[in-house]
Design goal:
- A hairpin with a 2-residue loop joins strand 15 and strand 16 (298-301).
- This protein is globular.
- It has helices at residues 24-30, 40-52, 71-85, 125-128, 177-192, 211-214, 222-232, 302-323, 325-334, 339-342, 346-358, 361-370, 379-384, 390-403, 412-423, 431-445, and strands at 4-9, 58-62, 89-93, 107-109, 112-114, 139-142, 148-155, 158-162, 196-200, 236-239, 246-251, 257-262, 272-279, 282-289, 292-295, 298-301.
- It folds into two domains: 4-290, Purple Acid Phosphatase, chain A, domain 2, CATH 3.60.21; 302-445, no CATH class.
- The protein is built from 16 helices and 16 strands.
- By secondary structure, it is an alpha/beta fold.
- Helix 2 runs parallel beside helix 3 (71-85).
- The chain is 39% helix and 18% strand.
- The structure holds fe (ii) ion (2 copies).
- One fe (ii) ion (FE2) binds at residues 64, 95-97, 202, 241.
């Protein structure tokens, strides 16, 4: 068969620079997010240049194209799409951030956050992005929100099923019964037409890593939805939303499988550009990344910059506890935690923060021994990593989730050390929680399925 080359990106979350003066409220907001804000336009420009120069036949964008549905962000983003479209076919779906479903748009000015930002309504999005999918649709379904799902041919024998899953009408992300029936009809039609069907929707069907972390990010009734789609004959699903990189397989009770590729946010670490070759072997996956972008006149090396932005998310809260109670409360509030209610935690967090920034693995082991639970720790692994700072383990665990290169997948000692430290929790009698934390850590440390993946 003739190969088709596809590129998937998602969660571009474009934030117009006109919405901030870079003051204190902006800095608090920016410092509380894994993804960037002011840098988004520059990162997207760099990514689109890379993609325009690639051999991709078509580019798919899996929703949350703007920060929070701001009209100005949409207008700027669409200009970028039109420029990319001169070189590549571009197919877009929108998601809940594109119509500010939480009704909380924000702009930042000095010490103030304003909510008077004009936003796009959900039923305007289909027409606004009409030139990026719906205009070529072989079939289209308009949801009760006025958003669009569509099927479109993107290669000689490849059909894209672009699904808007913002709301099922039953209180969560997903599809109404009418929408399901349209999807099932499209899957049957693609099979009858001899097309390989590749689907995308914004919210995952599978709780990647662990349900405790990402169960709430999925469509509502995820197993029912996944079963229905798998049984309809959908084999490949590309999703976004969680901002992590992961691949997993779902099998329905009837034995039908659906492989789901969760693509991370383009504007946060690791700025993934997921290239897919549709060929006789199946779907070959190869992940590229934004290499450099220009921000405030400087050329920025994307991966280290975005990595630091992501890991600062933890460090800034800990650092806040070392500065003052008020700063700690402000930084918690920026994360969406009620700083006023939890600010008093500063007296507990402050001594922990000192250890967080300065302790090495050997210090953690010593502390666990003093608490009477050092027996769980893998001795060989502890010796190997004794001089490694605790903060590096925390950063690497977080990054393993985001980039899909689980740090424990290729280093047994690393895996054993982290897991054995987690076992120490058994000694504080939180057995059920320990089991869940162990499963979650196992999921993170072994999240390494992108390497040479063929679906
Ligand atoms: Fe997002
Ligand atoms: Fe999202």
């Amino acid at each position: 068969m003739k190969e088709t080359k596809l590129t998937f990106i998602t969660d571009t979350h474009h934030f117009s620079k006109t919405l901030s003066d870079g003051g204190r409220q902006y800095k608090l907001r920016s410092g509380s997010d894994q993804k960037c804000l002011m840098e988004t336009g520059d990162i997207i420009d760099a990514a689109f240049r890379q993609i325009a120069d690639s051999d991709a036949d078509a580019v798919m964008i899996i929703g949350d194209v703007t920060n929070d549905g701001e009209r100005v962000s949409h207008e700027e983003f669409r200009e970028k799409l039109y420029a990319l479209q001169k070189k590549k076919k571009v197919y877009v779906i929108t998601a809940t951030h594109d119509w500010c479903s939480d009704d909380n748009p924000r702009r930042y000015c000095g010490n103030a956050t304003w909510h008077d930002v004009p936003v796009m309504a959900s039923d305007e999005l289909r027409d606004f992005y009409y030139d990026f999918g719906p205009n070529e649709a072989v079939s289209e379904f308009i949801t009760h929100l006025g958003t669009s799902s569509y099927a479109v041919d993107i290669g000689e024998n490849v059909r894209l099923l672009a699904l808007n899953d913002d709301q099922s009408g039953l209180g969560g992300a997903g599809f109404s019964e009418e929408h399901f029936q349209w999807i099932e009809a499209q899957a049957a039609k693609a099979a009858a037409d001899g097309k390989i069907l590749i689907a995308m929707e914004h919210h995952p069907l599978i709780a990647h890593i662990h349900p405790m972390v990402f169960g709430g990010s999925c469509v509502k009734d995820r197993e029912m939805v996944a079963s229905r789609l798998a049984d309809a004959g959908i084999r490949y699903m590309f999703v976004g939303h969680t901002h992590i990189q992961c691949i997993d397989t779902f099998t329905s009770k009837n034995g039908n499988t659906l492989k789901e590729v969760n693509v991370g946010s383009l504007v946060g670490y690791p700025a993934p550009i997921v290239n897919v070759t549709v060929c006789d072997a199946g779907l070959k996956i190869d992940v590229d990344h934004v290499k450099t972008f220009t921000y405030e006149g400087e050329t920025v090396d994307a991966l280290p910059y975005l990595q630091k932005h992501a890991t600062d998310l933890f460090d800034r809260v800990m650092e806040g506890a070392l500065i003052s109670k008020a700063e700690f409360a402000d930084r918690l509030s920026a994360l969406g935690v009620k700083g006023k209610d939890f600010g008093n935690l500063v007296y507990i967090v402050k001594p922990l923060a000192k250890k967080y920034f300065h302790m090495k693995a050997s210090g953690v082991v010593k502390l666990l021994r003093a608490l009477g639970c050092g027996g769980c720790v893998d001795k060989q692994a502890a010796e190997k990593f004794k001089d490694k700072p605790l903060i590096d383990f925390v950063h690497e665990t977080w990054l393993s989730m985001l980039d899909g290169h689980g740090r424990g997948a290729h280093d047994k000692d690393y895996y054993n050390l982290v897991m054995s430290v987690a076992n120490a929790l058994v000694h504080v009698r939180a057995v059920k929680l320990t089991l869940q934390i162990r499963q979650m850590l196992h999921g993170i440390l072994t999240n390494d399925r992108f390497e040479n993946a063929v679906l």
